[in-house]
Amino acid sequence: MKTENEERAGLLYGIGAYGMWGLVPLFWPLLKPAGSVEILAHRMAWSLVFVGVALLAVRRWGWMRELVRSPRKLALITVAAAVITVNWGLYIWAVNTGHVVEASLGYFINPLVTIALGVLVLQERLRPAQWAAVGIGFAAVLVLAIGYGQPPWISLTLAVSFAVYGLVKKKVNIGGLESLAAETAIQFLPALGYLVWLGTQGTLAFGSHGAGHTALLAATGIVTAVPLVCFGAAAIRVPLSTLGLLQYLAPTFQFLLGVLYFHEEMPPERWAGFSLVWLALAILTWDALRTARRSRAAMEAAKATAAAAATAGAEGADTTTEPTPTPTPTPTPAAAPARQAP
């Protein structure tokens, strides 16, 4: 059973992970004039370097043998690497081209897309509240599409790519640090090849804009891996319901940065769409908390019933095994003298 200190530490790790993910829009603009694709390539290459050092420090290499021996897991890791490449690249481009609010919307609707994938791919059954949340989320996308004059493709691509990534990771079922190492190992050669090609063209930003800019490009590996390490530490210490609530921190911070710091426009139709999304997430959160509470109550009731049954069984066993006293026989006249013999 987790101690109170462990849960408190897990909560801090979770806040740290989602807080860093929420504030990362402040980091990508610092890497200009490097282009979005070059930043993505640096992120993939330096992430492998950072994760490799971390794995070397903790000496966790046994998973590699198992992964190499499983073609199915290798194929899934390759799919995960491809999907997260799209997600990372589009997010960097969105932030550096003034679409922070739309990017935040992608992570707001991600839980709704994940639920939809569960129905379509895993044949999961939804509760009425979940159906209502998905329906409201769909209505929000329609409102935003009308307001934009086109579907909010940045938000939808980010949400779908991350939901597919989560689905694939669930099927692979290896640790976060190990999974990131495997994915970035697949990404490394294409990323390195692209950076070398930029160098031959004379358009590589790395090393061309001072030591500080070079260090920031190298730090993309740290920016990628540290929140994931914190998330892994939180996941083993706090309940899943708590993580489910914490996940809204990241898009909330991103949304606030987009409106208050980057001063992106929020016309009425965008407010209407976001309000519908927030309503859907409120319903989803309420349903998840209610279901978790009922599950805990049912589990406690089952434990109480089992304990009562065990107690009753023990008492019954004590009654049946208690020795019955043997009545003292009345001595017969013939036996009496024998008892009195010397």
Protein described:
The chain is mainly alpha-helical and 342 residues long. It is built from 14 helices and no strands. It is globular. The N and C termini lie far apart (70 Å). The model is unreliable at 328-342 (pLDDT under 50).
Gist?
This protein has 342 residues and is mostly helical. It contains 14 helices and no strands.
Mean pLDDT: 85
Number of helices: 14
CA gyration radius, whole angstroms: 30 Å
Largest sheet: number of strands, sense, barrel closure: none
Element-by-element helix/strand order: HHHHHHHHHHHHHH
Question: Which segments are poorly predicted (pLDDT under 50) over 5 or more consecutive residues?
Answer: 328-342
Give the strand content.
Answer: under 5%
End-to-end separation in angstroms reads 70 Å
Dominant shape: globular
Extended strand count: 0
Q: Could you estimate the helical fraction of the residues in percent? A: over 70%
Q: Name the structural class.
A: mainly alpha
